[in-house]
Amino acid sequence: MAWQEIIVDTQTEAVEAVSNILMEAGAEGIQIEDAADVQNFEPNDATVMVDWDTVAHLETGAKVAGYFIEDVNLPEVIHDVQMRVHGLAAFGLDAAPGLVHTTKVDEENWATVWQKYYHPVRVTRYLTVVPKWETYTPADEREQQIVLDPGMAFGTGTHPTTRLMLEAEEVHLRGGEQVLDVGTGSGVLSIAAKLLGAKAVVATDIDEVAVRSAQLNLDLNPAATDIEVLASDLLNDVRVQQFDVIIANMLAEVLVPLVPQMSAFVHPGTKILLSGIYFDKAETIKQLLIENGYQVIEMSQLGDWFGIVAEVPVEDAD
């Protein structure tokens, strides 16, 4: 089987928006190359060392590739993608140059090449992302493995926004929590929550296609077999209940309508973990949280991306 690859040349700040455009256009999977991942790479004691001089990578900008089945109406899809990418400027996102081009990829050759570039990466102190085809021996008895299929899915979970969220989960989950993961994508954050001791996790994504993609990764992780994953536009189709932790790794433009929706799903002490926030939107999201009654307790940055941790204030018992 051959695949049609549609590639968008863009900028770091538009990567997630362009990925969403390609998925909504029918892409079966996404591959991202981002120069910022190299520029912002900060090795530490929990990170696998990388010699970037020996690894092919972009020097500037980013490329987002979507993979489509062979019989897709390619000219129609390309036109739609091109129009929507150009429209991102209306949302304050620089997608330049925004060029869209295509190639044909043989599935067997593509899969082989893909696997050469993905290896286990220890993302945080206790969490390591492991491609499903790799056999990995933990370096620390406390280390937890998140097994993903980054083939025709959503990458390895090491994008700066995902790293910020995994680090926040590792700090703020204590065990026994009820967790809501809004816009779960690959499911990596939901899996991490279970590995870190969450009692129950509800994960959502925009439609059934995205839900099925997430479920494939959940099924690779024994700890994640009881995660409930459902299709929902933000929280519109989530049964109202109170969660101890709400996680959302999405663009600021999507977080803006989400924050007011959360009020029916929280209780005093609920933690809110947000990421996907480009640097020029960080203050906007912070103020939005404050306006909706949340207390911002932590802001973290990795490259141009921000993560924010907030909580519902707990009244003093006098």
Automatic annotation (TrEMBL):
Gene3D superfamilies associated with the record: Vaccinia Virus protein VP39
Subcellular location, record wording: Cytoplasm
Source species, domain of life: Bacteria
Catalyzed reactions: L-lysyl-[protein] + 3 S-adenosyl-L-methionine = N(6),N(6),N(6)-trimethyl-L-lysyl-[protein] + 3 S-adenosyl-L-homocysteine + 3 H(+)
Primary subcellular site in the record, as a coarse category: cytoplasm
GO cellular component: cytoplasm; ribosome
Example GO biological process: methylation
Alphabetical keyword list: Cytoplasm, Methyltransferase, Ribonucleoprotein, Ribosomal protein, S-adenosyl-L-methionine, Transferase
Entry GO MF terms: protein-lysine N-methyltransferase activity
HAMAP family xref list: Methyltr_PrmA
NCBIfam families reported for this sequence: prmA
Protein's job: Methylates ribosomal protein L11.
PANTHER family for this protein: ELECTRON TRANSFER FLAVOPROTEIN BETA SUBUNIT LYSINE METHYLTRANSFERASE
Protein name, per record: Ribosomal protein L11 methyltransferase
Gene that produces this protein: prmA
